[in-house]
Amino acid sequence: MKYAIQYEHMKDELVTDDPKTKWCFEEVKKGANKRKLELTDDEFRGLFKLCRHGKDIDWIMNQMNIYKSTFTDALISYIVI
């Protein structure tokens, strides 16, 4: 069985007419489900905003997955490196 958490309840809030918003929404959702991360709405929004600004969300999600760190801790690690 494929692991999948639906974040569709946030789609209306985050996705606009801009095609990049739909792409970023799908990237964050796909990345979170691939790593089996159960993101809070705030964490999802944060990753979505980073994606929209062209930041490497895969690295941050890997930090959260491998080290079981919070979004905030992973983001601080990203900024420091």
How would you characterize this protein structure?
By secondary structure, the protein is an all-alpha fold. It has one domain (8-80). It has 5 helices and no strands. α2 (19-34) crosses α3 (41-52) and α4 (57-66) crosses α5 (71-80). The protein is globular and about 35 Å long. The model has no long low-confidence stretch (mean pLDDT 91).
What's the arrangement of secondary structure elements?
Blueprint: H1 11-14, H2 19-34, H3 41-52, H4 57-66, H5 71-80
Helix pairs in contact: 2-3, 4-5
List the keywords.
5 helices; mainly alpha; 81 residues
The rough form would be described as globular
Oligomer, anyone?
single chain
Poorly predicted ranges: none
Based on CA atoms alone, the radius of gyration comes out at 12 Å
Give the amount of beta strand, in percent. under 5%
Count every helix, treating DSSP H or I runs of 4 or more residues as helices: 5
Main β sheet profile: none
What is the total tally of β strands? Answer: 0
Could you estimate the helical fraction of the residues in percent? 55-70%
Series of H and E elements: HHHHH
Secondary-structure content class: mainly alpha
- Summed up, the domain count is 1
Ends: how far apart? 36 Å
Mean pLDDT over the full residue set = 91
